[in-house]
Amino acid sequence: MFSLVSLILLMSFEIGPTIGGFIPVQDEDDPWRSSALFGVKTRYGFSSIDLDFQLLFTELGIDPDSSRGYDYTLIPLTLGLSKNTRYLRYGAGGALYSIEARNVIVEGLESVWSGTYPGMYLSFGRDFSVGSNTADVTARFNIIDFNGLWIGLTTSFLF
């Protein structure tokens, strides 16, 4: 009996790599630029709704004149619910956005600043069947406490 329950639970679980882009929605004078994203996505399917978890990484693009020599990294960690209809998958969830700024002053000496900011997201996308696997193409509207709205465009291959 235990193996049957385990099998049912595992059949509802999908995991796979994610790639995409992170695009700031900003004022004209903001320094942020679009950045590449990569990470992992998991989905646990219930009968009418799915639980989504995503861990991503990006080196934030910034205008060199505004960076003051710092390199910025961002790690979004999201957890939310999504619903798949015939033509659209939509969802929402909470997120933590960990950001780090690092500047090498001289070899062996660097300046580091970091912080974690709460946020939320709304997502819209589409699932495509690829054999027995799923290709998930999603646009996520990330509302981040440190700097407004960012759009994440991602593709995940879940198996």
Number of helices: 2
Low-confidence stretches: none
Characterize the main sheet: 8 strands, antiparallel, barrel
**What helical percentage do the residues reach?**
under 10%
Give the helices and strands as they follow along the chain: HEEEEHEEEEE
Number of strands: 9
Distance between the termini: 25 Å
Strand line-up across the major sheet: 1-3-4-5-6-7-8-9
> Briefly, what CATH class?
Mainly Beta
Structural class: mainly beta
Rounded mean pLDDT is: 89
CATH architecture level-2 label? Beta Barrel
- Total of domains: 1
Shape: elongated
What fold name goes in the CATH topology slot?
Answer: Porin
Strand content: over 45%
| Global Rg | 18 Å
Explain what this protein looks like in three dimensions.
- With 159 residues, this protein is mostly beta strands.
- It has one domain: Porin (Beta Barrel), CATH 2.40.160.20.
- Helix content is 9%, strand content 73%.
- It is built from two helices and nine strands, in the order H-E-E-E-E-H-E-E-E-E-E.
- Strands 1-3-4-5-6-7-8-9 form an eight-stranded antiparallel beta barrel.
- Strand 7 and strand 8 form a beta hairpin.
- The chain is elongated, with a radius of gyration of 18 Å.
- The relative contact order is 0.21.
- The model has no long low-confidence stretch (mean pLDDT 89).
Question: What does this entry show, briefly?
Answer:
The protein is mostly beta strands and 159 residues long. The chain has two helices and nine strands; from the N terminus they run αββββαβββββ.
